[in-house]
């Protein structure tokens, strides 16, 4: 197990807060997903750009899709085959950007 | 029919060039799709940003998804229920950006 793979204890501590915030567990793999809706494309892509800069800074990248004002994002850590602490941290940062914090 | 919906003559004129360039017709609807691969996330998102600026300028937006260096893009015109001249123009511009022209 790599050092940042989520243990059961990590999951019990971190996931309830994210699930309460609107994240869901992917059905087919160990990943977190969330859908966001913005005012329009400009707002959606502006948010994506902020997330992209974070992703590049931390070298941890999302899987995501966008149609006009909607974005669906999936977080997982390919190198550990599932969720890691990086995904938890990234999810919290993504929420913070979305809510302007 | 709205004024920019593609006629059969338009399709015969415009689509062969796009299909030869790497675009495909979607299986389930009247839309053009293409997959691009870049060096890395930075290159992929840089290209997406250029496409997003074009999209906003012309008020015609793609459906797209990104995973690291890969982008899948779908073009269709929701207001005409299928392909329009805007999609053909947009596809050509997208190709031009991808190849640095």
From TrEMBL, chains A, B:
Catalytic activity as recorded in UniProt: (4aS,6R)-4a-hydroxy-L-erythro-5,6,7,8-tetrahydrobiopterin = (6R)-L-erythro-6,7-dihydrobiopterin + H2O
One record GO biological process: tetrahydrobiopterin biosynthetic process
Enzyme Commission number: 4.2.1.96
Keyword Lyase among UniProt keywords: yes
One of the Pfam families matching this protein, by short name: Pterin_4a
InterPro entries: PCD_sf (IPR036428), Pterin_deHydtase (IPR001533)
Enzyme class: lyase
Cited CDD domains: PCD_DCoH_subfamily_b (cd00914)
Entry keyword Lyase: yes
GO MF entry, a single one: 4-alpha-hydroxytetrahydrobiopterin dehydratase activity
Keywords linked to the UniProt accession: Lyase
PANTHER family documented for this protein: PTERIN-4-ALPHA-CARBINOLAMINE DEHYDRATASE (PTHR12599)
Family as reported in the entry's similarity comment: Belongs to the pterin-4-alpha-carbinolamine dehydratase family.
Name of the protein this chain belongs to: Putative pterin-4-alpha-carbinolamine dehydratase
């Amino acid at each position: 197990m790599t050092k940042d793979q989520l243990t059961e204890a990590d999951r019990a501590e971190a996931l309830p807060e994210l699930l309460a915030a609107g994240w869901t567990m992917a059905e087919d793999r160990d990943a977190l997903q969330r859908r966001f809706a913005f005012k329009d494309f400009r707002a959606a892509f502006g948010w994506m750009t902020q997330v992209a800069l974070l992703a590049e800074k931390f070298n941890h990248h999302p899987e995501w899709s966008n149609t006009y004002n909607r974005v669906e994002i999936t977080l997982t850590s390919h190198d550990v085959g599932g969720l890691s602490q990086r995904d938890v941290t990234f999810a919290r940062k993504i929420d913070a950007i979305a809510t302007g914090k």
